Amino acid sequence: MIDRLQELREEALQELEKASSVKDIDEVRVKYLGKKGPITEVLRGMGKLSAEERPKVGQLANEVREDIQAKVEEKTEEMEAAALEAQLASERIDVTLPGREVKRGARHPLTAVIEEIEDIFIGLGFQVTEGPEVETDYYNFEALNLPPDHPARDMQDSFYVTDDMLLRTQTSPVQARTMEKHNGVGPVKIICPGKVYRRDDDDATHSHQFMQIEGLYVDKGVRMSDLKGILNTFVKNYFGAERNIRLRPSFFPFTEPSVEVDVSCGICAGEGCRVCKQSGWIEVLGAGMVHPRVLEMSGFDAKEYSGFAFGMGVERFALLKYGIDDIRHFYTNDIRFLDQFKRV
User: Fold this and answer.
1) Which UniProt keywords apply (predicted)?
2) How much is the pLDDT for 17?
3) DSSP 8-state class, residue 262
């Protein structure tokens, strides 16, 4: 048995020396050290040996196992090191090459416009307030003095979720909710930016979804002159100090009196051109004094409190500021278009 163990050691070491892969090494290991291997068979016959021979054979068998296992580990390490070296050589990186440019994103033009408008009104003492986009019929219409038979409540104008829930058609519901939270105690001075939804055919100047910013100021002694002063300051900060505003009579159910607000044309300086349709003015937003009924429905005493409200479309202000001619550019995610605003 001693001679047989010596032979097995020599055979195993020679086969390991010839092995050319980790798989070959593992096959030799299983062949000689496995449960069905020749070394195991030799050990099973030790029962036939004398008491003197048994320890010698057992010791030699352990030595043979250890030698083979040591060789297996040595060859495996060699193979793995060679494989790693080959991989590193094949994946070598030339560190002298210039690095690849990392493309940086930027704020979307609508986001930039909203943030700019917010900054202006925050500087004027307004707070930014938000509300739900899925709104109840009450806050979207009734609380804003829009009776059930008003044309704006027609199903063709709004996206209804249920008979009493719809996608808000304006951010004015945020104003109604905020006034309610004040429990009839002013002042309330907020702007409400957000998405609104209306049934409309998408074209160069219309979209079924668009961004809106509305403002509200309710306190004792608020006058139309305060509204004009605030809007005039806003326009000069947004468009430039040389721009002016004018107010034209209009009608909105939630304000009385109501006005349309125009800004002097920045292209022709009010002289008249194609952009302003030769009028020298461009309509930008609607405004007015909060209707007494709206104040009363929100818990304010209309004899003690007054206020003004205004609303503007963000896309319109972006179109005017950047000279864009199609509102759809804002929503089509065309990189060529968006790349122009990386510094905005």
Assistant:
1) Aminoacyl-tRNA synthetase, ATP-binding, Coiled coil, Cytoplasm, Ligase, Magnesium, Metal-binding, Nucleotide-binding, Protein biosynthesis
2) 81
3) E
Tokens of 156: 């063709």
Is the peptide bond prior to 98 cis by the omega test (within 30 degrees of 0)?
A: no
Going by their DSSP bridges, the two strands 127-128 and 188-197 should be labelled as: parallel
296 is an annotated ligand-binding site residue: no
In sequence order, the β-bridge partners of residue 108 are none
**39: pLDDT strictly greater than 80:** no
CA 7 from centroid of its chain's CA atoms: 72
What's the pLDDT band for 49 if we cut at 50, 70, 90?
low
Q: What is the pTM of this model?
A: 0.68
CA distance 129 to 124: 15
Which structure tokens are listed for 168? 């808000």
Residue 155 pLDDT > 70: no
Round to whole Å and give the CA distance between 314 and 321.
Answer: 11
d(CA 74, CA 20) in angstroms, rounded, equals: 13
Packing angle of the helix pair 314-322, 109-123 (nearest 10 deg): 100
Handedness of CA 288, 289, 291, 295 (dihedral sign): positive
Q: Which of 236, 234, 241, 238 is nearest to 308 (CA)?
A: 234
User: DSSP characters for 36-79?
Assistant: TSHHHHHHHGGGGS-TTHHHHHHHHHHHHHHHHHHHHHHHHHHH
| 109-341 classified as CATH 3.10.50.30 | no
Identify any residues that bridge with 247 across adjacent strands, giving them in sequence order.
Answer: 261
Q: What is the rounded distance in angstroms from the CA atom of residue 295 to the CA atom of residue 144? A: 9
Distance between CA atoms of residues 227 and 243, nearest Å: 17
Q: Classify each residue of 91-112 as buried b or exposed e, where b means 16 or more C-beta atoms within 10 Å of its C-beta.
A: eeeeeeeeeeeeeeeeebbbeb
pLDDT average, residue stretch 230-237: 96
Measure the CA dihedral 165/171/177/181, to 10°: 160
Q: Where are the domains of the chain?
A: 2-90, 109-341
Closest Cα partner for 242 from 275, 267, 213? 267
Query: Tell me, what's the pLDDT at 46?
Result: 67
Q: What is the residue type of 145?
A: N
List, in order, residues 6 or more apart from 112 with CB less than 8 Å away: 341, 344
Both ends of the chain: CA-CA distance in Å?
88
